[in-house]
Amino acid sequence: QNVAPTLTMLCAKTGLLFVPPAIDRRVVELRLTDNFIAAVRRRDFANMTSLVHLTLSRNTIGQVAAGAFADLRALRALHLDSNRLAEVRGDQLRGLGNLRHLILGNNQIRRVESAAFDAFLSTVEDLDLSYNNLEALPWEAVGQMVNLNTLTLDHNLIDHIAEGTFVQLHKLVRLDMTSNRLHKLPPDGLFLRSQGTGPKPPTPLTVSFGGNPLHCNCELLWLRRLTREDDLETCATPEHLTDRYFWSIPEEEFLCEPPLITRQAGGRALVVEGQAVSLRCRAVGDPEPVVHWVAPDGRLLGNSSRTRVRWDGTLDVTITTLRDSGTFTCIASNAAGEATAPVEVCVVPLPLMAPPPAAP
């Protein structure tokens, strides 16, 4: 259909198996919904520099070629929802420097590369990734979307939000994280703003986190102290709060347990210079404690060519030196406090080898 003064092409439900090559390159709006297009090829939208709105919803698209949208410098809205995309790569959305709306909901997306949104970080206003299989997002990139109005991530498998992600998103009016796998929410100015607190006047903001397996301990106490009731329906853990409505639980029941070291190396470890030694340290608590080790000289130890701290708290020293003699300290810490345990290490120096006697 030619609708003056702009050119609009509507090709919905026409049985298309691919993007027609004869499309007028001057088209401003192109709708190819409800077809059977399986892939977007490199030249499908070449030279369409006037295209503003592109809709590819409800096809069977599983592949998007690198640079397929590179010529769409004027594009403001891209609808790719209800397809079969499994990932979003950094080269697929290259060139979309004017994009405002990116709709990728109801696909099979498991992974989004960190560079996937680079072309439109400062312009995008609406990002929809709902109903996918995402376990994580490039949160650093999301935090740079300063013009973002709506962020829709409901019905995914996301279990972590990086702290400080939303600090710069002052234009955000809707954040939907419903039905994910979040156990906790990091304190963020965004949530305070949604409750109308803070130095600035309140702005309309809807934050939805219902349907997540929240772990209701002291780390969520900041959220419980906010006055506005949200759709955070129930707590999943700990056991004594299971299935209880979040906002009905008294503050004093949001508890944490300080660390308790349950297993550690014996009080003294004897090792010959140059050999390896492993120092065990395990701790329990709520939230799960993080274990650090401090060397005899007071240095905080990390992973290096000579030392490694394992996930279970064990410290491996692969090559001991005489400087390792002394007290190593295991420190287990969480939001409720910390516990320490000393381990004495004695490094036995290698005997000096005497030179062989001179031959007569």
Automatic annotation (TrEMBL):
Chief location: membrane
Alphabetic keyword roster: Disulfide bond, Glycoprotein, Immunoglobulin domain, Leucine-rich repeat, Membrane, Repeat, Signal, Synapse, Transmembrane, Transmembrane helix
Protein's membrane topology: Single-pass type I membrane protein
Pfam families given in the database record: I-set, LRR_8
Keyword Transmembrane appears in the UniProt entry: yes
Domain of life, per lineage: Eukaryota
Gene Ontology terms: cellular component: postsynaptic density membrane
Keyword Transmembrane found: yes
Classification via SUPFAM superfamilies: Immunoglobulin, L domain-like
Localisation per UniProt entry: Membrane; Postsynaptic density membrane
Residues annotated as domain Ig-like: 259-346
PROSITE patterns (alphabetical): IG_LIKE, LRR
Alphabetical list of InterPro entries matching this protein: Cys-rich_flank_reg_C, Ig-like_dom, Ig-like_dom_sf, Ig-like_fold, Ig_I-set, Ig_sub, Ig_sub2, Leu-rich_rpt
Family as reported in the entry's similarity comment: Belongs to the LRFN family.
Protein name from the UniProt record: Leucine-rich repeat and fibronectin type III domain-containing protein 1
Species this protein is from: Macaca mulatta (Rhesus macaque)
Gene: LRFN1
